[in-house]
Amino acid sequence: MLTESTPITGREDAGDRSRPVQVLSEFYRAFNSRDLELAARNWETSEVAVMDNPLGGISRGWPAIRAVYERLFTGSNRVQVEFWDYSIVETTDCFIAIGRERGNLTAPDSTTLELRIRTSRIFRRDSDGQWRQVHHHGSMDDPDLLRAYQSAVGSSSSSGSR
Question: Coil, strand or helix: which one is 35?
């Protein structure tokens, strides 16, 4: 399996969204520009979608996932990440991207927190032939970083450990 070292930042040409890298770039453009409408176009907006990340625990269905992004996008802290050190496994109607995110959370007082997150994303083709994200999992290895990130952004995780 080939591991790609060129990061996906969201500044790449998303083209016609026919290739996995284009769809991933669209997601990171939405995330880094705090564009909830673009994020909604990238995600499957039904109850099929599931997200398990450090901020929201397990969120099932687009409304719950959207709430996590709304909290992050409207908060006073600014989060910017890129996807790197990744592999993509593609079939006809599905692709899985497995890699790492790196970036920063910057607080209004310019304090920064360096972020390192293990990440996987699953996309499937919908009935119109468009790629839609149906699953995201993100984990932080460093428990101190996890606590600092959850504290800075606000976590709805009931376990306090996701």
Answer: coil
In contact, 92 and 113? CB cutoff 8 Å: no
Spell out the domain ranges in the chain: 20-153
User: How many CB atoms lie under 10 A from the CB of residue 50?
Assistant: 17
Nearest to 102 by CA among 122, 121, 86: 86
Evaluate whether the domain defined by 20-153 bears CATH number 3.10.450.50.
yes
Q: Write out pLDDT tens, residues 56-105.
A: 689 999 999 999 999 999 999 999 999 999 999 999 999 999 999 999 99
Would you give the DSSP letter of residue 56? T
Tell whether pTM > 0.85: yes
Residue 153's φ and ψ, nearest 5 degrees, are -95, -30
Q: How far apart are CA 160 and CA 26, in angstroms?
A: 30
116 token code pair? 């390192």
